[in-house]
Amino acid sequence: MGLYNDNPTLDGLTKTIEESKQGEVLELGLTQKSSHTKHFYIESYGCQMNFSDSEIVASILATEGYGSTRNMEEADLILINTCSIREKAELTVRKRLRVFDKIKRKKKGTLIGILGCMAERLKEKLLEEEKLVDLVVGPDAYRDLPNLINSADDGHKGVNVFLSREETYADISPLRLGSNGVTAFISIMRGCDNMCSFCVVPFTRGRERSRNAFTIVSEAKDLFDRGFREVTLLGQNVDSFKWENPETKQIVNFAQLMEMVAKINPLLRVRFSTSHPKDITIDVLHTMKKYDNICNYIHLPVQSGNSRILKLMNRTYDREWYMQKIDEIYSIIPECAISSDMITGFCTETEEEHQDTLSMMEYAKYSMSYMFYYSEREGTLAHRKYEDDIQLEVKKKRLSEIIELQNRISREVNLMDVGGTFKVLIEGTSKRSDQDFRGRTSQNKMVIFPVQEGLKAGDYVFVTITEANSATLKGHIVN
Ligand code: SAH
Ligand code: SF4
Ligand code: F3S
């Protein structure tokens, strides 16, 4: 399917998305021995959307005759797909640029391009600050890459940071970088129309728009036909997915889209991320319940457990409302795992209000969380309206408290799985030993268990859990 249906087998991903926290490095160095005359090297930072975008970029470059390389020294084009979510994410990118500069000084013709959210946030300013950079390309401008590369080859620096209201790259079949051949991400929408006061994403990704539902289903079907067994539907706020069929004028909402994907084949697992608590509907929960292959796992970031802080954050729900949502999920899908994102030390947060986040974590029994301390971002509502007045040490102290608590809760909820038997999709062998398989339960928990002959990545097995810690379950296959 698609315009760029070029899917050479690539391997050599050094770090998978599972290991990389949101806002942290995700390297997409690839090895591909090929006959290509030109090679690109790409590194990605940030969220899964960025990871997914790098696969679109790879697909666009492949049609231009570019092969991928894992060795940046042999690349003609070095790309860095960047994240702006926290100051630290941007600092990491700046450090990587120093490394790329060295290569460019040795090999003059090498082009360096900055893609993604930092490109969008800083625009032309990046060219002034980063003298050796040739291209600055925002998240909605990747189709323009071939043109920009051509002019850069002629010595003209290229900037395209145009944010679109329509672009969804719907027709581009992503080139699956470093894929395990079993699990894949599918972008179903772009941008974000929420205005969480701390967040830079609406500025770097533009307005929310949903992708043509049929192209999503055909991408998922194509993946299934190629042996993939799990797809994760991606968006900053998947529950507000809304696509109107231009011919019939019928609207497809997220619950309906999920059902369309789930119906492709019962052997294809469906996951999704991220759900904004205000938008997840009862229909979504009932659809999850109805289909065995829709995983019992919801990433439902709370950000804070305190109503006053949630109001300042402009999350549009309060503590009680969120708690009711948690109750509703567990009552409809008792076996559901819920995970979260939390920010400590948001503007004016008191010690007591911080305690509300801790008690919320106990209440929701999150299986895991991504946790951060507040990092002020220029241009956001919070930057304009509130003072970033919590001392760094306090932010960090509160962060270490929530991390410690999450570890305890994760261990407790995981220990409750000991003795139970779960359907696990094998993703490959364990990183530590090729005598063990690794896979995930429907609840998105990583399970390690001894290899059994005749089984391979992409197969489903039933595993009885014998051991658990805060991060993984261990067990053995049962028949
Ligand atoms: N769309 C997703 C989140 C995307 S950003 C959602 O609404 O949940 C991922 C996470 O980064 C956020 O959930 C938040 O916890 C964190 N984050 C965003 N901006 C931040 C900031 N300025 N400082 C610290 N953490 C931030
Ligand atoms: Fe940022 Fe809020 Fe949009 Fe998530 S929902 S991307 S936190 S503005
Ligand atoms: Fe970062 Fe942009 Fe994602 S700011 S978290 S890469 S949308």
The overall average pLDDT, rounded, is 92
The CATH superfamily of the largest domain is tm_1862 like domain
CATH level 3 topology of the largest domain = pyruvate-formate lyase- activating enzyme
CATH class of the largest domain: Alpha Beta
Bound molecules: S-adenosyl-L-homocysteine, iron/sulfur cluster, FE3-S4 cluster
Going by CATH, the architecture of the largest domain would be: Alpha-Beta Horseshoe
Strand content: 15-25%
**Class by helix and strand content?**
alpha/beta
Intertermini distance: 38 Å
Shape: globular
- Tally of domains: 3
The count of strands amounts to 22
What would you say this structure looks like, in words?
With 479 residues, the chain is α/β, with parallel strands linked by helices. It folds into 3 domains: 4-160, Rossmann fold (3-Layer(aba) Sandwich); 183-413, Alpha-Beta Horseshoe (pyruvate-formate lyase- activating enzyme), CATH 3.80.30.20; 421-478, Beta Barrel (OB fold (Dihydrolipoamide Acetyltransferase, E2P)). The protein is 32% helix and 23% strand. The protein is built from 14 helices and 22 strands. The chain has helices spanning 48-63, 87-106, 117-122, 125-129, 145-153, 201-205, 213-225, 254-262, 282-290, 307-312, 319-332, 351-364, 381-385, 392-415, and strands at residues 25-27, 38-45, 66-68, 77-82, 111-116, 135-137, 158-160, 183-187, 189-190, 209-210, 230-234, 242-244, 251-253, 269-273, 297-299, 337-344, 368-373, 421-429, 436-440, 446-450, 460-468, 472-478. Helix 2 links the parallel strand 4 and strand 5. Helix 8 (254-262) packs parallel to helix 9 (282-290). It is globular, with a radius of gyration of 22 Å. It starts with 24 loop residues before the first strand and ends with a strand. Bound molecules: S-adenosyl-L-homocysteine, iron/sulfur cluster and FE3-S4 cluster.
